[in-house]
Please model this.
Amino acid sequence: MVILAVALARLLALPVERLAESVDREPVSPPLPLAVPLGASEEVRQIAAAIDRSRAALAELLEDRTRMLAAISHDLRTPATRLKLRAEWIEDEGIREKILADLDEMTLMIAAALDYLKQGSAQEAEQMVAFTSLLQAVCDDYSDLGRPVRLTEAPPLQFDTIGTIFGPSGSGTARAPLTFDQARALRLRCRPEALRRALTNLIDNALKYGGRAEVMVQATSEEVIVDVLDDGPGIPEEEQSHVLRPFYRLEQSRNRGTGGTGLGLAIVKSVVDAHGGTLELSNRARAGLRARMVLPRRL
Model:
């Protein structure tokens, strides 16, 4: 009797558990209706409908906030430009340079805020791209400017050979793996301009704090992994999750020469999240930081 009661309770709870799993999945923008389990009761369907309404209302609220902040940031560009033009007429060179430096910092922060907010509003259309070529183009832009940025491409594909009736079998014969000499042309469905910006932010950070950047890419049938390595001081482990938040800085002086705007890594995380991927930060064994982007390969 007890076993029957436990089995019945388990059967009744199963649709609710599956509904909870559906709610816990990574959020999608715009949110998709929850998948109601087959055989779910009317009560479970009503709960799912209520959750859908709440998610849709929350998504609309966040979208309105994003549009408002983007509009404010965009409109600030005009008075900032006017102030810069008027500051050029200040006769005292010392005061003029200080005001222009402050206006440059304001312009930089406005541009960074717009870049961040764009990730939450109208997004670039996805397309299939030659991902290795995109990486190479980004790194070449730095190399052309004499910046120490190096790309290590994904290693060639290797396959183990198998003996058949037409060739030597595996018994007692060492078989060398079959290797393709051509470089791997990694294809990835993505938003290329957004990924270009994310990669640029990671490389800029590596150059700023580590003096050089090494970009490494590897791939499986399911995902593409990009590592950006530097030789800098790294980030304390307790701070690694915090630096991915908007406007958070390890250096709190709010000096753009040392602390930046606090949006660089937040923009990277926003781009990676929009691709359904993950961004991981870790300190290297000797010195430096490893920033890893893991992007799913989708058809």
